[in-house]
Model the fold of this input.
Amino acid sequence: DTEVTQTPKHLVMGMTNKKSLKCEQHMGHRAMYWYKQKAKKPPELMFVYSYEKLSINESVPSRFSPECPNSSLLNLHLHALQPEDSALYLCASSQYQRPPYNIQYFGAGTRLSVL
Amino acid sequence: AQKVTQAQTEISVVEKEDVTLDCVYETRDTTYYLFWYKQPPSGELVFLIRRNSFDEQNEISGRYSWNFQKSTSSFNFTITASQVVDSAVYFCALSEGQGGSEKLVFGKGTKLTVNP
Done:
Protein backbone atom coordinates (compact mmCIF):
# COMPACT_ATOMS: atom_id res chain seq x y z
CA ASP A 1 0.00 0.00 0.00
CA THR A 2 1.56 3.28 -1.12
CA GLU A 3 -1.02 5.67 0.21
CA VAL A 4 -0.49 9.20 1.38
CA THR A 5 -3.69 10.86 2.60
CA GLN A 6 -4.16 14.61 2.55
CA THR A 7 -6.97 16.61 4.08
CA PRO A 8 -8.84 18.70 3.23
CA LYS A 9 -9.06 18.20 -0.53
CA HIS A 10 -10.16 21.80 -1.06
CA LEU A 11 -9.72 24.87 1.10
CA VAL A 12 -10.81 28.45 0.64
CA MET A 13 -9.46 30.98 3.10
CA GLY A 14 -9.24 34.70 3.57
CA MET A 15 -5.97 36.50 4.01
CA THR A 16 -6.52 36.89 7.75
CA ASN A 17 -7.46 33.28 8.42
CA LYS A 18 -5.40 30.56 10.05
CA LYS A 19 -5.79 27.08 8.67
CA SER A 20 -3.87 23.82 8.59
CA LEU A 21 -3.25 21.17 5.98
CA LYS A 22 -2.80 17.61 7.14
CA CYS A 23 -0.89 14.69 5.64
CA GLU A 24 -0.75 11.12 6.88
CA GLN A 25 1.09 7.98 5.80
CA HIS A 26 1.34 4.52 7.32
CA MET A 27 4.10 3.08 5.16
CA GLY A 28 6.78 3.48 7.81
CA HIS A 29 8.46 6.20 5.77
CA ARG A 30 10.78 8.47 7.73
CA ALA A 31 11.01 11.32 5.23
CA MET A 32 8.03 13.56 4.47
CA TYR A 33 7.75 16.49 2.11
CA TRP A 34 5.61 19.50 1.28
CA TYR A 35 5.44 20.77 -2.28
CA LYS A 36 3.62 23.70 -3.84
CA GLN A 37 2.36 23.41 -7.40
CA LYS A 38 0.99 26.29 -9.42
CA ALA A 39 -1.13 25.63 -12.49
CA LYS A 40 0.80 24.23 -15.45
CA LYS A 41 4.05 24.15 -13.46
CA PRO A 42 6.03 21.33 -11.87
CA PRO A 43 5.91 20.84 -8.10
CA GLU A 44 8.27 23.03 -6.08
CA LEU A 45 9.80 21.66 -2.92
CA MET A 46 8.97 23.63 0.24
CA PHE A 47 10.04 21.52 3.22
CA VAL A 48 11.53 18.13 4.04
CA TYR A 49 11.33 16.33 7.37
CA SER A 50 13.68 13.43 8.07
CA TYR A 51 13.04 11.44 11.21
CA GLU A 52 10.61 14.11 12.35
CA LYS A 53 13.23 16.86 12.11
CA LEU A 54 13.16 19.65 9.57
CA SER A 55 16.04 18.95 7.21
CA ILE A 56 15.27 21.21 4.26
CA ASN A 57 13.50 24.57 4.14
CA GLU A 58 13.58 26.03 0.66
CA SER A 59 13.43 29.63 1.87
CA VAL A 60 9.68 29.48 2.30
CA PRO A 61 7.97 32.57 3.80
CA SER A 62 7.17 32.33 7.50
CA ARG A 63 3.43 32.45 6.83
CA PHE A 64 3.89 28.74 6.06
CA SER A 65 4.81 26.78 9.18
CA PRO A 66 5.41 23.04 8.96
CA GLU A 67 5.07 20.60 11.81
CA CYS A 68 5.83 16.90 12.11
CA PRO A 69 4.24 15.67 15.36
CA ASN A 70 5.13 12.02 14.72
CA SER A 71 6.51 9.74 12.04
CA SER A 72 3.13 9.33 10.33
CA LEU A 73 1.83 12.89 10.37
CA LEU A 74 2.84 16.10 8.68
CA ASN A 75 1.02 19.40 9.03
CA LEU A 76 1.33 22.70 7.24
CA HIS A 77 0.01 25.65 9.21
CA LEU A 78 -1.10 28.63 7.16
CA HIS A 79 -1.44 32.18 8.42
CA ALA A 80 -1.88 35.54 6.67
CA LEU A 81 -1.57 34.06 3.22
CA GLN A 82 -1.60 36.09 0.03
CA PRO A 83 -3.70 35.44 -3.09
CA GLU A 84 -0.55 34.33 -4.91
CA ASP A 85 -0.28 31.44 -2.44
CA SER A 86 -3.28 29.85 -4.11
CA ALA A 87 -2.02 26.53 -5.48
CA LEU A 88 -2.13 22.76 -5.14
CA TYR A 89 -0.21 21.68 -2.04
CA LEU A 90 1.19 18.19 -2.28
CA CYS A 91 2.53 16.00 0.46
CA ALA A 92 4.92 13.12 -0.21
CA SER A 93 6.79 10.52 1.78
CA SER A 94 9.72 8.19 1.17
CA GLN A 95 12.01 5.78 2.86
CA TYR A 96 15.09 7.44 4.25
CA GLN A 97 18.58 5.94 4.19
CA ARG A 98 17.37 2.49 3.29
CA PRO A 99 16.07 1.05 0.02
CA PRO A 100 14.07 1.86 -1.91
CA TYR A 101 15.08 5.26 -0.64
CA ASN A 102 14.19 8.36 -2.52
CA ILE A 103 11.08 7.11 -4.27
CA GLN A 104 8.59 9.72 -3.21
CA TYR A 105 4.93 8.75 -2.99
CA PHE A 106 2.50 11.62 -3.26
CA GLY A 107 -0.91 12.38 -1.90
CA ALA A 108 -3.75 13.79 -3.98
CA GLY A 109 -3.10 17.28 -2.70
CA THR A 110 -5.07 20.14 -1.19
CA ARG A 111 -6.32 22.78 -3.62
CA LEU A 112 -6.00 26.06 -1.77
CA SER A 113 -7.66 29.30 -2.79
CA VAL A 114 -6.77 32.49 -0.92
CA LEU A 115 -9.28 35.30 -1.32
CA ALA B 1 23.78 22.08 -11.67
CA GLN B 2 20.97 19.66 -12.21
CA LYS B 3 18.49 20.27 -14.97
CA VAL B 4 15.71 18.31 -16.60
CA THR B 5 14.29 19.32 -19.96
CA GLN B 6 11.02 18.07 -21.36
CA ALA B 7 10.87 19.88 -24.66
CA GLN B 8 7.35 18.70 -25.54
CA THR B 9 4.87 20.91 -23.73
CA GLU B 10 1.75 19.22 -25.10
CA ILE B 11 1.12 16.13 -27.23
CA SER B 12 -2.21 15.05 -28.66
CA VAL B 13 -2.75 11.59 -30.12
CA VAL B 14 -5.61 9.37 -31.12
CA GLU B 15 -6.30 6.26 -29.11
CA LYS B 16 -4.13 3.23 -30.03
CA GLU B 17 -1.31 5.38 -31.34
CA ASP B 18 2.14 4.95 -29.83
CA VAL B 19 3.62 8.05 -28.23
CA THR B 20 7.08 8.87 -26.89
CA LEU B 21 7.72 11.50 -24.24
CA ASP B 22 11.22 12.92 -24.27
CA CYS B 23 13.38 13.72 -21.26
CA VAL B 24 16.92 15.12 -21.35
CA TYR B 25 18.86 15.73 -18.18
CA GLU B 26 22.03 17.45 -17.04
CA THR B 27 24.06 16.50 -14.01
CA ARG B 28 27.71 16.52 -12.98
CA ASP B 29 27.26 13.64 -10.56
CA THR B 30 28.17 10.10 -11.60
CA THR B 31 25.50 8.64 -9.35
CA TYR B 32 21.97 9.81 -9.90
CA TYR B 33 18.41 8.60 -10.23
CA LEU B 34 15.82 9.33 -12.86
CA PHE B 35 12.07 9.12 -12.37
CA TRP B 36 8.86 9.39 -14.28
CA TYR B 37 5.64 10.49 -12.59
CA LYS B 38 2.12 10.73 -13.99
CA GLN B 39 -0.26 13.46 -12.84
CA PRO B 40 -3.86 12.90 -13.93
CA PRO B 41 -6.41 15.74 -13.64
CA SER B 42 -7.20 14.61 -10.08
CA GLY B 43 -3.82 16.02 -9.03
CA GLU B 44 -2.00 13.13 -7.43
CA LEU B 45 1.49 12.40 -8.75
CA VAL B 46 1.75 8.70 -9.45
CA PHE B 47 5.20 7.12 -9.38
CA LEU B 48 5.91 5.13 -12.55
CA ILE B 49 9.58 4.23 -12.56
CA ARG B 50 12.98 4.92 -11.00
CA ARG B 51 16.23 4.18 -12.79
CA ASN B 52 19.73 4.63 -11.36
CA SER B 53 22.68 5.86 -13.37
CA PHE B 54 24.42 2.46 -13.38
CA ASP B 55 21.50 0.57 -14.85
CA GLU B 56 21.07 1.29 -18.53
CA GLN B 57 18.76 -1.60 -19.23
CA ASN B 58 15.56 -0.59 -20.88
CA GLU B 59 12.43 -1.52 -19.03
CA ILE B 60 9.00 -2.58 -20.16
CA SER B 61 5.92 -2.67 -17.99
CA GLY B 62 2.80 -3.56 -19.90
CA ARG B 63 2.19 -0.80 -22.44
CA TYR B 64 4.90 1.38 -20.90
CA SER B 65 8.57 1.25 -21.80
CA TRP B 66 11.56 3.38 -20.93
CA ASN B 67 14.74 3.97 -22.90
CA PHE B 68 17.69 5.19 -20.82
CA GLN B 69 20.74 6.36 -22.78
CA LYS B 70 23.60 7.87 -20.80
CA SER B 71 25.45 8.77 -24.00
CA THR B 72 22.74 11.26 -24.89
CA SER B 73 21.60 12.00 -21.30
CA SER B 74 18.10 10.94 -22.17
CA PHE B 75 15.42 8.92 -20.42
CA ASN B 76 12.49 8.65 -22.80
CA PHE B 77 9.11 7.12 -22.07
CA THR B 78 6.98 5.33 -24.64
CA ILE B 79 3.33 4.40 -24.31
CA THR B 80 2.26 1.74 -26.77
CA ALA B 81 -1.33 1.59 -27.97
CA SER B 82 -2.32 4.66 -25.98
CA GLN B 83 -5.66 4.81 -24.18
CA VAL B 84 -7.85 7.69 -23.05
CA VAL B 85 -6.90 6.90 -19.44
CA ASP B 86 -3.29 7.74 -20.29
CA SER B 87 -4.29 11.40 -20.60
CA ALA B 88 -2.28 13.22 -17.94
CA VAL B 89 0.73 15.42 -17.36
CA TYR B 90 3.92 13.38 -17.23
CA PHE B 91 6.95 14.62 -15.30
CA CYS B 92 10.51 13.43 -15.62
CA ALA B 93 12.66 14.07 -12.54
CA LEU B 94 16.28 13.76 -11.40
CA SER B 95 17.80 13.12 -8.00
CA GLU B 96 21.55 13.18 -7.36
CA GLY B 97 23.70 11.38 -4.85
CA GLN B 98 24.64 7.84 -3.93
CA GLY B 99 21.93 7.31 -1.37
CA GLY B 100 19.49 9.40 -3.26
CA SER B 101 18.86 12.98 -2.32
CA GLU B 102 15.54 14.14 -0.98
CA LYS B 103 15.56 16.79 -3.67
CA LEU B 104 13.83 15.95 -6.91
CA VAL B 105 14.43 18.27 -9.83
CA PHE B 106 11.39 18.09 -12.08
CA GLY B 107 11.09 18.89 -15.74
CA LYS B 108 8.28 21.22 -16.73
CA GLY B 109 6.08 18.31 -17.71
CA THR B 110 4.43 17.10 -20.91
CA LYS B 111 0.67 17.17 -21.15
CA LEU B 112 -0.57 14.14 -23.05
CA THR B 113 -4.10 14.09 -24.43
CA VAL B 114 -5.37 10.84 -25.88
CA ASN B 115 -8.50 11.34 -27.92
CA PRO B 116 -11.00 8.55 -28.55
Summary: Chain B has a mean pLDDT of 92. The first strand of chain B starts at residue 3 and ends at 5. Chain B touches chain A through 22 residues (CB under 8 Å). Residues 52 and 74 of chain B are 13 Å apart (CA to CA).
